[in-house]
Amino acid sequence: MTQVLKLDAQHPQPEAIEQAASIIRGGGLVAFPTETVYGLGGDAMNERAIRRIFEAKGRPSDNPLIVHICDRAMLDLVANNVGAKAEALIAAFWPGPLTLVLKGRPEVAESVSAGLATVAVRMPRSPIALELIRRAERPIAAPSANLSGRPSPTTADHVARDLDERIDMILDGGATNIGIESTVLDMTSEPPVILRPGWITREQLEDAIGRVELAATHEALKRSPGTRHRHYGPRARVVIVENTPAESVKELCEGLLQDGSVGFIGHTRVAIDNPRFSAILLENAADEYARSIYSALRQLDEWGAGVIVVEGISEAGEGAAVMDRLRRAASEAEQ
Ligand code: TXA
Ligand code: MG
Fold this sequence. Notes:
Helix content: 25-40%
Strand content: 15-25%
Number of strands: 16
Shape: globular
Order of helices and strands: EHEEHEHEHEEHEHEEEHEHEHEEHEH
Radius of gyration: 20 Å
Bound molecules: threonylcarbamoyladenylate, magnesium ion
Largest sheet: 12 strands, mixed
C-alpha cells in the first residue's frame, strides 16, 4: 500500500517528515514535492533502494538519477573536485532548480550514475524536500516521480496515478510552483554544457560564470542519456503549432477532428463547438506554461484525446525550456 500524507508545503509537520525519513533510511521509496516537479526518492548510497526506483518507474537502466542534498557539506559525500565555477553557481542558484554534473564519489550507489564516472547533484528549494533529506541524514536520489515516458508529475495525484502500489509513501505538498524540471549543467567539460534546459536560463548561468554551451551535438547528448529517450509524453499524439493565426489553428483542429477527438492547449481562444473537442486556455507566458503544461497534457489524455494540439510560446528566456519539453512530447520516437 502506498501511504499518502498531506503536508504544509512551507512548514511541513515534523512527525510526517520523520515517518518518511525512516522509510528512506530503511531502503524504501518516498515521493516528495520539489519546487520543479515531484521526485521519487531513495537512499543515494543504497544500491538496493536505487534499483527499486528504476523498477518502480520502468526506467531504462542507462538513464542516471539526480542526487538531492540539503546543504553544502553533503555535496562532499557524493562529489569530488567541485571547482571554482561550480562553487560560484552553488552560491548563486542553490537551493534552486539547477543540477550540476560533477565527478562522482565511489560511495554513491553504482546504479545512480548508470555506470558514468560523474554524478548529477542539486539542492532543491522546497522545505519538504530539504527537511526530508536533513532528517534522513543522507543524500536522496530522485528522478521525476512518473512512470518512465509519461509527463512529469506536478501534483501528488499525478504521482499516485502512475506509481500507486509501487512505492511506499507520497508526501502531498500541493502543486509544485515551477512545473518543469531543473536545468542540467555538465561541469566536467570546459566550457560547461547545458545537457537539459530548465528554469535557470543560459543567460543567468553566463552572468555567473561566463560562457556555457548548449548540448547540440550527439557527443554531448550521450553524456545525458535521459535526453535521448522519448520523454514527457502523453499517450496522445502531440502536434505543436507556432506563430500561427487563430483562424489556421482552428482549421487544423477541425481537420484533425475528422479522425477522432482533439485536445488543444494554447493561449489563443479556439471556438469549436464539438463534444470531441476540448481546450485548455493558458496565458501566453513561460511561467504559466511551465506550471500547467504537464498537468494539461495528463488532463487531455484522461479525457481521451487522440491528438493534442499545443500552441508554442516565445523561446526567449525561460520559454526555451518550455519549448524543449513540448518538442520532446511531440517527438514520436527516440531521437
Ligand atoms: O527538477 C528536477 O531535476 C527533477 C526533480 C525531482 O529534482 N528531477 C528530474 O530527474 O527531472 P529525472 O531523472 O527525471 O531527470 C534527470 C536528468 C536526465 O536527463 C538524466 O539523463 C540526467 O538528468 N542525468 C542524471 N545524472 C547524470 C549524469 N551523471 N550525467 C549526465 N546527465 C545526468
Ligand atoms: Mg524525468
